[in-house]
Amino acid sequence: MPNFREKPVLAGETVVLRPVIADDAVDMLEVLADGDVLRLTGSHGTLSPDDVEPMRQWYGSRADHEDRLDLAAVDRASGRYVGEVVLNELDPNNNSCSFRIALGATGQNRGLGTEATRLVLGYAFERVGLHRISLEVYSFNSRARRVYEKVGFRAEGVLRDALLWEGQRFDAHVMSILAHEWAEHRGRPEAVESRKAV
């Protein structure tokens, strides 16, 4: 049965993914302080310094969970934490899980998200042995959708009016990638670096 017992370090050319630790809570609060990140991820509410300790406990406990993989995304050039990559909602009976990624402003528009996504997909399909990985992306997040398509995700359907944001409703697009699609995608030139890194 597939599980996320192993908490790997996945290194690419521009980004390193490592298991989250309690101290990442402060950096993640900074990422979530960005209103654009909150909107793109559909995260309602605000966080305050009072949330640091509960978040420290949350991040500090991630190593104990076999049903999810929480990895910190670190910019290789600066060594700075820029966000997180998560595989969750593991369904071992069907060899599937969900994927999400959240990068702060310092990790955007430089290819870190694309490389991080390729790294974690390679790990999930090739080492864990998953068959299907799915995600949801809001209709206004065309940048993320392009990244997902670039790495091999395919559109499956639409969750209508899934997000209410500042009085306006938005659809969520459901996308997925299957193990054989990942294998086909890996052979493309743009995926070669992921092959070296995993």
Radius of gyration, in angstroms, nearest whole number: 16 Å
Percent of sequence in beta strands = 25-35%
Mean pLDDT: 90
Helix content: 25-40%
In total, the number of domains comes to: 1
The CATH level-2 architecture is identified as 3-Layer(aba) Sandwich
Outline: globular
Give the N-to-C terminal Cα separation: 21 Å
The neighbouring-strand order within the major sheet is 1-2-3-4-5-6-8-7
What's the CATH topology name?
A: Aminopeptidase
Sequence of secondary-structure elements: EEHHHEEEHEHEEHH
Q: Enumerate the spans where pLDDT stays under 50 for 5 or more consecutive residues.
A: 192-198
Short key terms for the protein model shown above:
198 residues; alpha+beta; Aminopeptidase; 32% strand; disordered C terminus
Write the layout of secondary structure elements.
Blueprint: E1 10-11, E2 15-19, H1 24-32, H2 35-41, H3 52-60, E3 69-75, E4 81-91, E5 96-103, H4 112-128, E6 132-138, H5 142-151, E7 154-165, E8 168-178, H6 179-186, H7 192-197
Parallel strand pairs: 5-6
Antiparallel strand pairs: 1-2, 2-3, 3-4, 4-5, 6-8, 7-8
Helix pairs in contact: 1-3, 4-5
Characterize the structure shown:
By secondary structure, this protein is of the alpha+beta class. It has one domain: Gcn5-related N-acetyltransferase (GNAT) (Aminopeptidase, 3-Layer(aba) Sandwich). The protein has helices at residues 24-32, 35-41, 52-60, 112-128, 142-151, 179-186, 192-197, and strands at residues 10-11, 15-19, 69-75, 81-91, 96-103, 132-138, 154-165, 168-178. The protein has an eight-stranded mixed β-sheet, sandwiched between helices. It starts with 9 loop residues before the first strand and ends with a helix. 33% of the residues are buried. It comes from Kutzneria chonburiensis. Its EC number is 2.3.-.-.
